[in-house]
Design goal:
The chain is of the alpha+beta class and about 140 residues long. It has one domain: Roll (Mannose-Binding Protein A, Chain A). It has three helices and seven strands. Strand 5 (about 110) and strand 6 (about 120) form a beta hairpin. The chain binds calcium ion (CA) (3 copies).
């Protein structure tokens, strides 16, 4: 029922995917702004649970020309300890070669349009596209 309400609320928004599981933010925001927008919509920044979900989101972002885009992965609390914004304990990662490198202090993550949607850590203040997800986390810390 809750999901239905979300879908109705978002139905007028041009950037909602038909399935309603994800939402691609096309107005660039920093990480905190992106996360707040996802929560306002009833979800969180996307947690990528496996390679098939990475491919789904990669294809979705490709269709919207929305690279690079924030996902819900960050090491803000403890440098080098990466956690998902929605509390999911998922261990899947898809870092680009030589990433994460924390170059100048990078604690947030964007999916890039290279290496089939691989990830790079980036400064959280970098305004970017972003992808929200509305499904529940599969597990929690
Ligand atoms: Ca997910
Ligand atoms: Ca970092
Ligand atoms: Ca980096």
């Amino acid at each position: 029922m809750f999901m239905l309400v979300v879908l109705i609320n978002l139905s007028s928004d041009f950037s909602v995917q038909a399935s309603g599981q994800y939402y691609v933010g096309l107005h660039k925001k920093d990480f905190n702004g992106a996360l707040a927008d996802c929560k306002k919509r009833g979800g969180s920044l996307a947690t990528i649970n496996d390679s098939s979900e990475n491919t789904r989101i990669f294809n979705l972002l490709k269709s919207k020309h929305a690279f690079p885009a924030f996902i819900g992965f960050q090491d803000l609390v403890s440098e080098g300890t990466w956690v998902w914004a929605n509390g999911d304990c998922n261990k899947y990662t898809k870092w680009l070669p030589n990433e994460p490198n924390n170059l100048g202090g990078e604690d947030c993550v964007r999916m890039r349009n290279s290496h089939h949607g691989s990830w790079n850590d980036i400064k959280c203040s970098t305004k970017s596209f972003y992808v929200c997800e509305f499904s529940k986390s599969k597990c929690r810390y």
